[in-house]
Structures are given as C-alpha cells and as structure tokens.
Amino acid sequence: MGELKSDIQFLPGVGPKRALLLKRELEINTLEDLIHFYPFRYIDRSSISPIASVSPDVAYVQVQGKVVSRNLISIKHLSVMVEDASGRMEMVFFKGVKWTFDKLEPGREFIFFGKPQLYNGRLNMVHPEIDAPQNSPASMGVLTGVYPSTEKLKSGGVTGKVMCKLQSAALALCLGEINENLPEQIRKTHGLCPLRYAMQNIHFPENPRALELATRRLKFEELFFLQLSLLKQRYVRSRAANGIPMPVVGAPFHACYNALPYSLTGAQQRVIKEIRSDLAGGTQMNRLLQGDVGSGKTMVAVLSCLIAVGNGYQACIMAPTEVLAQQHYANIQKYLAPTGVRCALLTGSTTRKERKPLLAGLADGSIGIVVGTHALIEDTVQYKALGLAVIDEQHRFGVGQRASLWSKGHNGRPPHILVMTATPIPRTLAMTLYGDLEVSVIDEMPPGRKPVQTMLIGHNRLPAMYRFIREQIAAGRQAFVVYPMIFINEKMEDISNVEQGYEDILKAFPLEEGYKVAIVHGQQSNDDKTFNMRAFVEGRAHILVSTTVIEVGVDVPNASVMVIMSAQRFGLSQLHQLRGRVGRGAEKSYCILVKDPKTGADALKRLELMCATEDGFEIAEQDMKMRGPGDLEGTQQSGLPVNLNIASLARDGLLLEEARHCAQSVLDDDPQLQSPRNAPLVQELRKDKYNIKDYSNIS
Ligand code: ADP
Ligand code: MG
After folding, report:
1. Residue 397: exposed, middle, or buried by beta-carbon count in 10 A (0-12, 13-18, 19+)?
2. Ligand 1 centroid vs 447 CA: distance in angstroms?
3. Which of 355, 561, 574, 665 is buried most, with the most CB atoms less than 10 Å from its CB?
4. Residue ranges with CB less than 5 Å from ion ligand 2
C-alpha cells in the first residue's frame, strides 16, 4: 500500500541526485507522477536500418555498425565514424566525451539509436544512444516508448533507456494499487480496456493493437473526467436560484430597438432571445457569445444591457483596450440617444476630476450603463446594483480580474455574464474551455458585406502595392498598414519597427502630394493615440500606420485596404482579426499580406490558408492543428482549465464528443452521482486536478 504516493527518490535506480532532476525538469515527484508520464512516440527497435538508407526526414533511426575511427576534436567534442555494409555515418558527442571515447573502440560493433540530421551536407547523429548488439533493446518488446526529455536529464544520466527502466520498476511496484475508475458499463459501451492494462501497455506495448487500446482508453478517460467535472458544475449552478431576476424587457430596450437604422439579422435576433430567456430565468447567466468580426455583437450587447436597465439594474461593458472602450462608448451613445439612459466611460486615463461624479453616479444608480477597461472592476468602483457585465474579447482579461467582477454583484448575487469573443474557437476547444458555459453563435453577417480579396506578396512587389493604394485613395478609400509588435526581453518594443514603417510610408505617400498618414502604437500617450485614431476614423487621414492596437473592434467602413507587414510573424487568428477590419463598407476590399524574405515553410502555409478562406472557424481549426491549442490566442492568458496529459484537442475531437456525450448521459441518469455504480467517478473527481471550480465561477 501507498507506493503510488511514495517519493521518486526511493525508486531503485533513482537516488537523491536524479530525483532532484526529475522533480525540476519534469515535475515528477512521486511514483504516481512517474507512471503518468507517458511516451510521446514509439519506435520499432527491432529493425535496424542500413546507413545508406537513412534520411534526415525520419525522427529516429537505429543503425548498427563498426567504429572506424574516433577523433577528439576538443575536450568537449568527439567525432566517431561508424560503418556498415552500406556506408558510413558520423556520430557526434559534446557531453560524456571521455566515457564515450573509451567505450567506442575502433573495430568494435555497436547499435546507435538517435535522430539523424544533415550537417554541412552530410548526415550525422548527435548524442545517439549506444548499445552493444547483443543487448539490443529489441528484447524489451517490439515497440519502445520515447519519453520527452531535456538536455539536463540526458547529461544527468536519465537517458531514454534509463527512463524505460524506471517506468518498468515503478509499474512493478504500483500497478496493483491502480484501481479502475470507469464503471464497467461505460467501458463496455465505449470499448475501453481496463485501466491497469492501459497503464502497462502505454509504457510497454505488447503489440501495436495493445498500444492502440491503451491510448484510446487513457485519452477517453482524460476527456471524460474533464467533461464530467465541467458539466456537473453547470448542473449544480443551474439548480441554484442565484440569478438576479429580470422578468421584463422594459421600455429602454423598445426605445432603442424601434429606432435602429437597420433590422437585426436572424442570428442577432436568435441570440437576443436566448439572452432574454436567460435573464428572465432564476439562475445566473454565463453565456459565451461567439461571432466573427463584423457580425454585429455590439448591438446584441447594447440591447442586453438595456434589458438590465429596464429591470432597474446597471450594466457594464468591459473592453480590452482603451481605444476600443472609447469606440464602444461613442457607438453606444448613438444607440442610447432615444432611450434616455445615462452612459459613462471609465478607463485608466479618466481624470480624478471626471472620476468623482462618475463614481457617484454608479453608486447612486443614475448611470445605467458604464463602458470601460478593467478600471471598471477596481475596488474603488461601487455599483448600486450591477445586474449584467458584458466582457468583450474576454481573453485579454486575467483570471483574477474576472474574479473581482464576479464579486461586484447585488445582494450577494453575481451579475449575469455575457462574454463576447470574435476569435472563433474550434468546437472542441469551446467545449473544454467553456464546458460550463452556454454558447451562442452569431453565424450570419449583416447584409451587404463583400468578400475581402487576400493576396500574399514579397518585398519586390511593394512599389506595385503603393501604386494600388494610391488608386484606392484616389477613389476615396482609406488603408491600414499594420506592423507586428516586437518583444525584446518581454518588454514591448514595437516602436522602432512601426516608426521605420511610418518613414517608409511617408516616403511613398508624401505630404506634398496631399497624402495624410496617421500613426498609432502602444507607446504613444493616450492623447496622441486618440488624436491619430480619430483622424483616421473621421476620414482626415488616408492611411493609418499602426501596430496591432487596432486589432479588435475598430470600425472604419470606408477603409478598403489592409496591409499586414511581416505577416509571417502573426498567428492565423490574429491575421483573421486584422482582415476583419476591412470589408465593412460597400466597396470591394483587399487584404495584402507582405512576407519577409526568410519566411519559413510553416508560416507560408498559414499565409496561404489566409488567401484561401475567409471562414473564421475553419481558420481557427487549422490554427489549432498547426500550433496546438495551448498556443491559440484566447487560451494563452486564460489557460486551459486543466492540462491534458495524453489527449489532444486538435486531434481527438471525435473522442472528445464521445466522452462528452457519455458524461452527459451519466449525469442525466444520476445528476448527483449518488448511485453506487458511479462511486469510482466521484472518487476520481475528488482529485486535485479536477478542482477547476474557480475557473468556471469567473468566466
Ligand atoms: P463585431 O463587434 O461583431 O465585430 P459590430 O457590432 O462592430 O461587429 O458591427 C459591425 C458593423 O455592422 C457595425 O458598423 C454595425 O453598425 C453594423 N451592423 C450591426 N448589425 C447590423 C445589422 N443587423 N444590419 C446592418 N448592419 C449592422
Ligand atoms: Mg466588436
């Protein structure tokens, strides 16, 4: 008993020094941690490749050959030439040089296992694992796991081979302690092997089929418990009568609605109905509103806020940047004019003098709607009765900030929350990130939007691009030119880049010829930013040169050209956001992606995808496949609710759906998980890793 929790240090073959390494490098503290550290790939070590057949494209290869010569180039650089019947290959060592030199005597035969690479036009392997032919690990089974590793681990003696031995020892000690955590019924229905079998075979597969079974079982389990914990929270919350009641639609809503210059799209109407029914119900709303750039989320937000006001509550709209908050404020005031509802703007640059009456208005309830940045949730801001918080582009908010919003409710009841995002989130990710939220999607664009023509060019075509922009300006249009931010030492250093760009644009579009160019970047004062931004929004500037501060929300329907410089530096979702800035007016619009000379193959693929589609969801799916979900915009700051150990949101979408359905049906039958057959589930959910309650409370 108790082996699972015992310190890794006491596993034979570890000891204090290696234990420290395992803890520091891999966060493996106990035997339990160790056996849940899985190989990330498997290699067939029963096969040995002829040297002549090795290519640099394969991840790992095993060759067998005789040492021809060994050459100590320096005390930290050993080169060994190895030969088999088909050819020769160099093995290179920068560590353990002396030991390796002694071992690899010329004339003796060894098996070398490692990653081949091309160096100066010739193939070599750096730090291959070395085995004498008779102890080829082929005897350990057909498939050998390859574990994630680091340089420090390898030089500390925890090689791949050692890791296999440790796993084997750990499994022998604690496999018997591992209890099945999925009820038999679920395993049968979904064709899942027992947990012990899976644990054994994920490390030491008996054969490829066993590995497949083990992998499927462990992935399913991981996704299933994640969904079960999320859905259970949602269920608990939906039963708690903790929502601020908003039974009526109210006069302000109707006043605004009747004065709208256009009719709402079908999707906008549907979403507003969903929100209305949430607000009228007895429970707190937690709704995610997804809609591509330009789909008209602002209108939905305003009408939702007006429902809150119509019921005697206040509403706030939080934007990620000052510029965006200002723009929201300006837009919203137009819509509010016919309602008589008082609206205010509160940001970091609101002066102390302005703040005083504003805070008083929020405290006495005379201000119905307040728009702002995260200044809205500072401790000093007290609401009389905050009933609804709309969070625009929520991923820019830190978790803690969202928590303090949660605490600003009324009479101990949290405000209803509407999270809006223009970053389309792949379904699998939404189900995980927001598994406990209701999701609304605006999947229809306001009428009259034209497709944006996207092209990819190199620097050689810049003169042609300038000519094209001049034509557009002559036709009365405006253009964005965006530069990437550059981060140096974690500090934002966008200025040199965008300022150099500004110089270039000024040369191509001289003032003497009547061109007006504005510039906006993160290091400007707010006054400068606002001044330049307004020059462009109001049509006085022809070109806006900027960094990505314009990324979200900025609405200039007259702009018909979006130029993105060094486009290879942007992520797909970000490119999509930027492109969404044009194509908002009646004219045909263009997005020109300018790549730098040394653009890599992966980046090119992304840029080509941008030229091929305008569908934000498809772009998001592809982005996730290319970069993995952890790197997606939208997840960087907020993070996944739990780390997935083996399943992948990008690749295991179908299994995730299956696991979610399974979790749902378990809860449908036994909402409180009280049945004895579900006892193993309750047991599993008690583990720390599923303690993700805080996350859902603040979304
Ligand atoms: P989002 O915030 O989703 O990117 P916005 O709310 O800024 O989009 O709306 C984009 C543009 O479309 C705005 O100029 C807005 O006035 C306009 N718009 C919104 N809804 C409609 C509609 N139903 N019909 C026509 N235009 C609309
Ligand atoms: Mg918007």
Report:
1. buried
2. 10
3. 561
4. 553
Contact 310, 250 (CB under 8 A): yes
Residue type present at position 402: R
Amino acid of residue 241: A
Q: Could you tell me if 218 and 646 are in contact, meaning their C-beta atoms sit under 8 angstroms apart?
A: yes
Atom from ligand 1 closest to the CA of residue 297: 3
Give the DSSP H or E segment for 480: strand 478-482
Question: Strand, coil or helix: what is 129?
Answer: strand
- Ligand 1 atom, smallest distance to 557 CA: 14
Q: Is 356 exposed, middle or buried (0-12, 13-18, 19+ CB in 10 A)?
A: exposed
**8 A C-beta contact, residue 424 and residue 290:** yes
To the nearest whole percent, how much of the chain has pLDDT over 90?
A: 51
Q: How many CB atoms lie within 10 A of CB 381?
A: 20
* 580's tokens: 């969404």
Question: What is the identity of the amino acid at 486?
Answer: I
Cα–Cα distance, 462 to 240 (Å, whole number): 60
User: How far apart, in Å, are the Cα atoms of 92 and each of 5, 85, 133?
Assistant: 40, 21, 20
Higher pLDDT, 217 or 637: 217
The amino acid that residue 19 corresponds to is A
> What tokens appear for 399 in the block?
């978790």
CA of 297 to the centre of ligand 2 (A): 6
Q: Cβ(262) to ligand 1 under 6 A? A: yes
Q: Check if the beta carbon of residue 112 is closer than 8 Å to that of residue 125.
A: yes
Task: Give residue 417 CA to ligand 1 midpoint distance, Å.
Answer: 21
How does strand 487-488 pair with strand 369-372? Answer: unpaired
**Full set of structural domains in the chain with CATH:** 46-141 (2.40.50.140), 251-281+295-421 (3.40.50.300), 452-613 (3.40.50.300)
Amino acid letter, residue 296: G
Q: In angstroms, rounded to a whole number, what is the distance separating the alpha carbons of residues 573 and 565?
A: 16
Q: CA dihedral defined by 429, 430, 436, 439, rounded to 10 degrees?
A: -170
To 10 degrees, what angle do helices 195-203 and 208-239 make?
130
C-alpha 517/C-alpha 530 separation (Å) is 14
For the packed helices 160-174 and 195-203, what is the interaxial angle rounded to 10 degrees? 160
Each residue's pLDDT tens digit, 393-421 = 755 555 566 667 777 878 878 899 998 88
| Distance from the alpha carbon of residue 46 to the mean position of ligand 1, in angstroms | 62
Q: Give the predicted TM-score (pTM) of the model.
A: 0.63
- Mean residue pLDDT of the chain comes to 86
d(CA 564, CA 545): 10
pLDDT at 643 over 80: no
Burial bucket for residue 33 (CB in 10 Å: 0-12, 13-18, 19+): middle
Reduce the DSSP state of residue 287 to 3 states and report it: strand
Does residue 299 have its Cβ closer than 6 Å to ligand 1? yes
| Residue 93 in tokens | 């060592």
Whether 537 is in the pocket of ligand 1, judged by its Cβ within 6 Å, is: no
Q: Tell me what the mean pLDDT of segment 308-329 comes to.
A: 90
Measured distance CA(536)–CA(540) in Å, rounded? 6
Cα–Cα nearest to 343, from 320, 374, 371: 371
pLDDT confidence band for 471 (50 / 70 / 90): very high
Answer positive or negative: Cα dihedral of 308, 309, 314, 318.
positive
Contact (Cβ atoms closer than 8 angstroms) between residue 695 and residue 232: no
Distance CA 132, CA 110 (A): 5
Centre of ligand 2 from the C-alpha of residue 393, in Å: 8
User: What count of other Cβ atoms lies within 10 Å of the Cβ of residue 512?
Assistant: 5
